[in-house]
């Protein structure tokens, strides 16, 4: 024991310098007075001091510090005597044989389910990939450095209570591609699923799919910054952003802080591209999708075509209003020049005014052509939208007749 203490004392303090409280134990993993396990020491070696202060975190996710949900198991099957079969592979399942489904989502069951009408998305792996991976957003983010620069820092996240200072409303949405995406007075947040409380889930996903693990770990890391104070924790519980434990109660704030420590030290090398960033501005993502992917939007808040066109045309109408003021000013100036010529009034700098008259001849023509071009583009756009809806409707009917599953399901507004 003395040797262990000596080694611990000699080890440099490498935890986050900006935090006054450390949740790491100075001894080997053990049980605390409350019966909860303390985190392993191994992450100490991964958290290195940064030359500019704070800590440089580039550690991978090593497992939960606390487990709030024990409904799942990832172990080898047992024989009739309850002994594990050594030659068998580990199986991911629920401990209760009567509740063979994902905690918090009874629609997703383990094994074959004859009533599954959701196709691939109704399976365990299909569901997890659909609701945790962000392929469309990952594909767009590299281009955001060229158009409307976005801060590439995962710490770029406001605490939950601070959004009220910006006048933003928190909208809880399960769509992973909208997590921490904001649009003027609103910001979307994806709630934490209940199965993220399970150690068995993290053991399984680590072996099953590294890409999925990176997405899940990156998502959880955002909550280290979303919930920075106890007021954020209680607000998150009220909005159901945090799930309850097995006993039906929310964890305490102290338990939550300890639970989040392993996620807080994870570096960018161990999360997917989306979570290299914090909060994202929807208007910039939409423009990036328009310029680089030739899509009308990444996510459209305006479900009606008319409302969408009005939103697009509003800046153009403003520009034409400015042009109208300029044309009226030109008209007044030209009228004044004509009066001066009729009254033999001497006009200063006649060469300059001749240039102005030449500009006045061509500028209205340019404005007229621009208006015609915009009106033509709007009419063509409406025609193309109508054709698109017509062909899509016919395609859905044909696929339904052919027996395809999940035909015509809403895209939740993501790139269309």
From TrEMBL:
Keyword field contains Zinc: no
InterPro entries assigned: DUF6601 (IPR046536)
Sequence segments annotated as region (Disordered): 1-43
Keyword Transmembrane applies: yes
Biased composition (Polar residues): 17-39
Alphabetical keyword list: Membrane, Transmembrane, Transmembrane helix
Transmembrane parts of this sequence: 305-327, 361-387
Pfam families reported in the protein's UniProt record: DUF6601 (PF20246)
Record-given protein name: Uncharacterized protein
Organism: Triangularia setosa
């Amino acid at each position: 024991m003395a040797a262990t203490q000596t080694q611990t004392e000699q080890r440099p303090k490498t935890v986050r310098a900006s935090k006054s409280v450390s949740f790491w134990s100075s001894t080997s993993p053990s049980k605390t007075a409350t019966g909860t396990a303390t985190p392993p020491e191994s992450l100490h070696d991964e958290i290195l001091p940064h030359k500019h202060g704070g800590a440089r975190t580039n550690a991978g996710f090593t497992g939960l510090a606390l487990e709030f949900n024990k409904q799942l198991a990832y172990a080898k099957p047992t024989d009739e005597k309850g002994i594990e079969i050594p030659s068998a592979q580990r199986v991911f399942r629920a401990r209760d044989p009567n509740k063979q489904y994902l905690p918090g989502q009874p629609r997703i069951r383990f094994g074959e389910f004859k009533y599954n009408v959701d196709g691939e998305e109704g399976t365990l792996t299909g569901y997890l990939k659909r609701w945790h991976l962000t392929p469309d957003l990952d594909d767009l983010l590299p281009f955001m450095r060229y158009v409307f620069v976005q801060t590439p820092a995962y710490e770029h996240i406001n605490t939950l209570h601070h959004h009220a200072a910006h006048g933003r409303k928190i909208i809880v949405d399960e769509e992973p591609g909208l997590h921490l995406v904001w649009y003027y007075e609103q910001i979307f947040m994806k709630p934490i699923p209940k199965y993220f409380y399970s150690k068995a889930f993290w053991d399984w996903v680590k072996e099953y799919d590294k890409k999925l693990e990176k997405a899940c770990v990156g998502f959880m890391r955002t909550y280290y910054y979303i919930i920075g104070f106890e007021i954020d924790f209680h607000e998150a519980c009220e909005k159901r952003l945090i799930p309850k434990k097995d006993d039906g109660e929310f964890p305490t704030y102290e338990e939550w802080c300890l639970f989040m420590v392993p996620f807080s030290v994870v570096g960018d090398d161990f999360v997917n591209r989306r979570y290299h960033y914090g909060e994202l501005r929807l208007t910039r993502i939409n423009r990036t999708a328009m310029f680089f992917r030739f899509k009308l939007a990444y996510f459209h808040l305006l479900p009606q075509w008319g409302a969408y066109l009005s939103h697009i045309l509003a800046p153009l109408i403003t520009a034409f209003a400015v042009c109208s003021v300029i044309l009226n000013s030109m008209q007044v100036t030209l009228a004044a020049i004509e009066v001066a010529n009729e009254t033999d009034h001497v006009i200063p700098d006649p060469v300059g005014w001749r240039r102005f008259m030449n500009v006045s001849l061509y500028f209205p023509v340019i404005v007229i052509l621009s208006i015609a071009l915009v009106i033509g583009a709007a009419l063509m756009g409406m025609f193309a939208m109508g054709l698109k809806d017509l062909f899509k409707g016919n395609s859905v009917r044909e696929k339904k007749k052919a027996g395809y599953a999940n035909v015509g399901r809403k895209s939740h507004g993501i790139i269309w």
